[in-house]
Amino acid sequence: MQDLETRQRGVASQVPRPSLPRRAGRALAPLLWLGPSLVLISIVVLWPVIEMVRTSLQDITSSGVTVGYRGIDNYRDLFDEDDLIPVVLRTLLWVGGIVIVTMALSLALGQLLNARFPGRRAVRWAVVVPWAASVLMTALIWKWMLDNYSGFVNRVLLDLHLIDKPVNWLANPTQAMLWMMWVAVFVSLPFTSFVILAGLQTIPSDVYEAARVDGAGVFRTYFGITLPLLRPAILIASIINVINVFNSFPIIWAMTGGGPGHDTDTTTTFMYKLAFYDQNVGESGAMAVVNFVLILVMVLMYLRAARWREEVR
Predict the structure, then answer these.
(1) Which of 62, 84, 89, 232 is 20 to 30 A removed from 30 (C-alpha atoms)?
(2) Cα dist. 156→140, 152, 178, 182 in Å?
(3) Which residue pairs from 267-273 have beta carbons closer than 8 angstroms and sit at least 24 positions apart in sequence?
(4) 68 has which bridge partners?
(5) Which long-range contacts does 266-273 make (Cβ < 8 Å, 24+ apart)?
(6) Exposed, middle or buried: residue 27 (CB in 10 Å: 0-12, 13-18, 19+)?
């Protein structure tokens, strides 16, 4: 036995090892396939991030001319803004409220779209419409509907005697934020519902049949089978919603312009005002970096919480 092992080692030692260029070629071969993707990611993702950080450190005029290097002075100016903290807190409330309500409604709507009923295809197409339409157009339509003189909402509420006189819904910051959050939910609902629907259609029917045989009720089946198996779809939909809602600009800008003052601004509209109203491109770049970091932190916290729940189970 030992002689056989000795002969095998001897034969293996006699096999010539590939040359260094050949080994390097084998190691670099995957880059032929990964190279185009890496180049695309570098151009589309990494380069804009680098430019964003570079802009936040420069002294740039309103016409886009770089006149010097400011370093962290742009960040100092940004954190000296009295409106920064209220805007950030309002943004977190904006994102959290919209994503939570959207996910709750999408779970119900996705379940409905997955059921069999006459006209299901027409209902699915109808749900797609708010997502297919321009977000700016949708926001402008809702702004017209909320007009205090000719708006549809006031006319309906007056006819139902729920209000005594027309209400300027967008003049009050709290009411305006609630209405804009509803519009954001309205345009986010179709995509999220179809992600949930796709997740529901991947669940094998055998699982539900086994649950019925075991005598599981509707609620036990939903919370014990459907929701756990929907975890990947919910995770994807939540992350995409967080990123989209955090960077939402057309709804707020079309309906209130972030006003009065900065009372309905989020970080995105605040960033725009710093650049084009205050003519401070460098400080706006610093706000963009802060906004980027906030998104990363929120996404990482959500992923960590999701992983923690999975480990606990």
Answers:
(1) 232
(2) 19, 6, 19, 18
(3) 267/87, 267/88, 267/91, 267/291, 267/294, 268/91, 270/83, 270/84, 270/87
(4) 59
(5) 266/87, 266/90, 266/91, 266/94, 267/87, 267/88, 267/91, 267/291, 267/294, 268/91, 270/83, 270/84, 270/87
(6) exposed
- Read off the pTM: 0.81
The residue among 155 and 221 whose pLDDT is bigger is: 155
Q: Which of 55-59, 79-83, 185-189, 192-196 has the lowest mean pLDDT?
A: 55-59
Which of 304, 118, 120, 299 has the alpha carbon at shortest distance from 201? 120
Question: Any idea which residue has 């910051």 for tokens?
Answer: 173
- Tokens found for residue 62: 């309103």
Beta bridge partners of 59: 68
Q: Which residue reads 């400011």 in tokens? A: 70
Distance (Å, whole) CA 4 – CA 32:
42
Instruction: Tally the C-alpha atoms within 13 A of residue 265's C-alpha that lie toward its C-beta.
Output: 19
Q: How far is it, in rounded angstroms, from Cα 85 to Cα 237?
A: 28
**Sign, CA torsion 156/160/166/170:** negative
- State the DSSP code for 119: T
Q: Which pair of tokens denotes residue 265?
A: 């601004």
Amino acid (1-letter code) at residue 21: P
Tell me the pLDDT of the chain averaged across its residues: 83
Q: What is the pLDDT of residues 34-92, one digit of tens each?
A: 777 878 878 887 888 888 888 888 888 777 777 888 888 889 988 998 899 999 999 99
**Which residue pairs, CB below 8 angstroms and at least 24 apart, start in 148-154?**
none
By CB atoms closer than 10 A (0-12, 13-18, 19+), residue 313 is exposed
User: Is the pLDDT confidence value at 272 over 60?
Assistant: yes
